[in-house]
Amino acid sequence: MFVPFGIIYCYYQKAFSIYKAIGLSFLTTFSIEAAQFIFKTGVVDIDDLIINTIGSLLGILLYIALQKILQWKQLWNVHEVIDTIATILPPLFISFVVEMFFGDGSPALRPVHNIILTGYGVCDYILLIKDFSLKSKLLYPAFYIGIFWLILSILI
Questions:
Q1: Is pTM, for the whole model, over 0.85?
Q2: CA distance 25 to 80
């Protein structure tokens, strides 16, 4: 769950520092555990601190690897790739939640998933990615359609 935090910490740093990103992820997890202890909610556990920090570290390493590969291949800017992936994740998450609470694995929800994923994809393409480069705008529909069908095949 904390892998995206590692990516986000790297994404928003102007001068990237792996130590700063690890420190921020540790402090975030520590703050969550401290809040659980103070407000007597959840279970305070040192394992959570360790595992969540390792999850953030995996996100940081993923960001670094993605950045190195993209620089080596000179394909895209790492921020553009992360922006593209981030714009695709919300409808996929919504589809999983809909299936989890209302689905029974039957094809009855296929129209709902189609509407959610298609509607979001069209609105996303029209409204959110207007600042992307032409290469990313061309890649986005292909990537989104591939993810769309992969998710539908998994859900139903």
A1: no
A2: 23
